[in-house]
Amino acid sequence: MSLALDPTAQDLLFREARTANTFTDEPVTEEQVQAIYDLVKYGPTAFNQTPLRIVLVRSAEARERLVPLMAEGNQAKTATAPLVAILAADNEFHEELPKLFPAFPQAKDAFFAERSVRESAAGMNAALQAAYFIVGVRAAGLAAGPMTGFDFAGVQKEFLDDDHTPLMIVNIGKPGEGASHPRSPRLAYEEVVKAV
Q1: For residue range 118-137, what is the model confidence (pLDDT) as tens digits?
Q2: How far apart are CA 130 and CA 125, in angstroms?
Q3: DSSP H or E run through 191
Q4: Of 76, 82, 129, 135, which has fewest CB within 10 angstroms of its CB?
């Protein structure tokens, strides 16, 4: 059985797409980022809570603040990527629920009154959105370099606030020379899927 999505698009989004470690100096425009968001915002989250928040690191001053917070192996690529995005979970996402989930606006207080519940929900659902974001970057013909090797507390203090938890940092751009390592193996269908 074949997929409905054209094989070329399948390759662009998955089979040929790779995590990039080097990039060309071609800029990533605001229009490209807007197009990525306008596509991936339709990915599902529980109660349509959409807790992902994105900080685009565009200025040289912001880049200088971010690079020292990266793990040593991530500093050079973060310093040279055309665009860097800090992806974070908004732990106060529930304030938007009356607008985002009009079918049950009471969900804000019925399910998410407690901070610990919000943090758990925000983390899981923002991680889903982060995956959509990476696929959206690929759909724009760009490469993504997602990383979790950084000082989480430092990034939160420097770029966010106590209501936002950093999830990952993504370098974005056109892949440069030697951008990717050889593809690592994947598990076979039979190793992953079990029918009960």
Answers
A1: 999 999 999 999 999 999 99
A2: 9
A3: helix 189-192
A4: 76
E strand or H helix that includes residue 10 = helix 7-10
Distance in angstroms (rounded) separating the CA atoms of residues 21 and 6: 27
Q: Is residue 93 within 8 Å of residue 122, measured between CB atoms?
A: yes
Indicate the pTM of the whole model.
0.95
Please report the sign of the dihedral spanned by the C-alpha atoms of residue 95, residue 100, residue 105, residue 107.
Answer: negative
Which amino acid does the sequence have at 78? T
Please tell me the distance from the alpha carbon of residue 192 to that of residue 82, in angstroms, as a whole number. 36
The total number of residues shown for the chain amounts to: 196
DSSP label of 41: T
Report H helices in 57-149.
60-66, 72-80, 97-100, 107-110, 115-139
| Residues near 41 by beta carbon (within 8 Å), at least 6 away in sequence | 50
Q: pLDDT tens, 28-55?
A: 999 999 999 999 999 999 999 999 999 9
Q: Match 């966010």 to its residue by tokens.
A: 160
